[in-house]
Design goal:
single chain, 218 residues, mainly beta, 2 domains, nine-stranded antiparallel beta sheet, two-stranded antiparallel sheet
């Protein structure tokens, strides 16, 4: 089973080094003193779609596709037509490789880190499926269905809890068993829903950067 995990960050482009090469700050650069040492380099051509088409191996993926191509990233991908600020979702292993320059996974206090996490599978039982992380609670269970309360990503913690929906779901069919932590009535924690289910529930993309507005999954 081949999969890639992405972490979401707010990104403010600071340098452009090529049509798809840039570096970005994970927060308002004015608050970071415009420090070039805090810039995160990224190759926006190294995406899941490039791996799926055989242009690069899955091991070379750095960043999620643009929202117009089925991903969650918003900066770029083309200069000068791309956005200079928005979300950038980078691979977990790429983030780990940034060493001391890693942007924080949890820049705010209103959410859990899994709310800014997505998983793309390439093969196996979950082949070619995408899952998004949410905070959720199972209120009740009946047969194979669970009555689930799900919060919008980025707003699961008090005081600004924002409930996305309360719905009956077959978690065995619509959730990722490798990352979902809730199973029984009363459980509260991470729920990774597949793309089709998230879209049917009118799920929003996380509000990153934090000063930006929401957007529905495309």
């Amino acid at each position: 089973m081949t999969r890639v995990v992405f972490y979401g960050f707010g990104a403010y482009v600071g340098t452009v080094n090529g049509q798809r090469l840039c570096s970005w700050w994970p927060d308002d650069p004015d608050s970071l003193g415009w420090s070039s040492a805090l810039l995160v380099p990224i190759d926006l051509s190294k995406t899941p779609s490039a791996a799926q088409s055989g242009v690069i191996p899955v091991s070379a993926v750095q960043v999620d596709d643009d929202i117009t191509s089925g991903g969650l990233s918003e900066v770029g991908p083309l200069f000068p037509l791309g956005r200079s600020a928005g979300a950038c979702w980078i691979r977990d292993s790429y983030w780990n490789g940034l060493g001391g320059n890693k942007p924080p996974r949890q820049p705010g206090t209103q959410f859990f880190d899994y709310e800014l996490t997505s998983v793309q599978y390439f093969d196996g039982e979950l082949g070619d499926r995408r899952f998004y992380g949410y905070h959720a609670k199972i209120l009740a269970a009946q047969g194979g269905l669970s009555h689930v309360k799900i919060w919008q990503p980025g707003w699961a913690k008090p005081p600004s809890q924002d409930v996305m929906t309360i719905a009956w779901l077959d978690l065995a069919q619509v959730s990722d068993p490798n990352f979902t932590t809730i199973q029984n009535a009363g459980d509260e924690g991470a729920l990774f829903l597949d793309r089709a289910t998230a879209q049917s529930l009118s799920a929003r993309r996380p509000k990153i950067p934090k000063d930006f507005g929401f957007g529905e999954l495309l």
